[in-house]
Amino acid sequence: MSGYHPDVRALTVEPQAAGSVRVEDVPDPRPGEGELLVRGVAVGLCGTDKEIVRGDYGWSPPDSDRLVLGHESLGRVEQSPEGSGFERGDLVAGVVRRPDPQPCGACAHGEWDMCRNGQYTERGIKELHGYASELWTVPADFAVKIEPHLGMSGVLMEPTSVVAKAWEQVERVGERAWFEPATVLVTGAGPIGLLAAMLGVQRGLDVHVLDRVTEGPKPGLVEALGATYHSTSVAEVAREHRPDVVIEATGVGQLVFDAIAATATYGIVCLTGVSSRGHTLGVDAGGLNREIVLENDALVGSVNANLRHYRQAADALARADADWLGRLITTRVPLEDAPAAFDQPSDDDVKVVITLDREDSR
After folding, report:
1. Nearest C-alpha neighbor of 127 from the set 70, 71, 63, 50
2. For residue 104, what pLDDT is reported?
3. Both 204 and 284 in a single domain?
4. For the chain, how many structural domains are there in total?
5. Cα–Cα–Cα angle for 101, 106, 110, nearest 5°?
6. For residue 2, what pLDDT is reported?
7. E-strand spans in the chain?
8. What is the number of other CB atoms lying within 10 angstroms of the CB of residue 321?
9. Which domain holds residue 325?
10. 88 within domain boundaries
11. Mean pLDDT across the stretch 99-103?
């Protein structure tokens, strides 16, 4: 990667080549018309990043053999176009997905998270460099302000946008008839599950979170949120609390089917966790179909987010307890040590964050 500015470093990978992740110099970014120049503060790591580093998938831009990682972004504006609504010093997050160039009907209407033809691109994942760089650019129309008091917790914007969309999908499905849910079960107490629970508490619901661990930060985070933590089984929680909504955030196949069977009549299950292929389960398909039909249940998948969901996420984070959000960030790794972060065990971690700006670790 010759011709790179020695002062701008980034975390890169050769997509679909395991063991290729490294920190290297990258081109000095030059903002185009309508773009912000942003100094990176941090990026969050998630399962998607780990799968890309393992070589499972990922696609570099057409003009590069490597991909800058990072889709959970936090940065500080260095330069902004006049009239953009952004000023130097603003904390911002960049939207991950871009609409396809065709565009399909969904992308043409700003619903690029629902792209119909798969020709979308994604920062740090699919054909666009990501945000794990000391400097990056982003069109002002694909950036969202973060309240300054959130500081480093602003890196939670992208996962919060994912659960904001999930809740929007639940509410849209529920509105097919009278819908006043009282109880929600969230399966999984990782970042997505905890943020989904937070949005449930903000909606005034009785929130229950199920996870397998009994020690570490997760039980305390759930309790501090005002929700109830469980480490038993979906069936046991459902027998006592009979959730109106289940948000499944693990992708574990058996939990997915348990969740479908757990809801009250006219229940809604929203799947946000992505399951691994190759695991076979025995399922009573007939009984499951009968229950879904006779109880008017609904099952919906939800992934990614569009600009509307990022703005909903910004509002939710602004209303949240900043100290509680800060507790979700359990590990901070400086950029130069980032490759090793993919090999560290994560049972006691909630959110691992790579810090990019050596002068801004707030």
Report:
1. 63
2. 96
3. yes
4. 2
5. 80
6. 36
7. 9-13, 22-25, 35-44, 67-68, 72-79, 91-94, 97-98, 121-123, 127-128, 135-139, 143-146, 183-187, 206-210, 228-230, 245-248, 268-271, 298-301, 329-334, 351-355
8. 13
9. 9-146+321-355
10. yes
11. 92
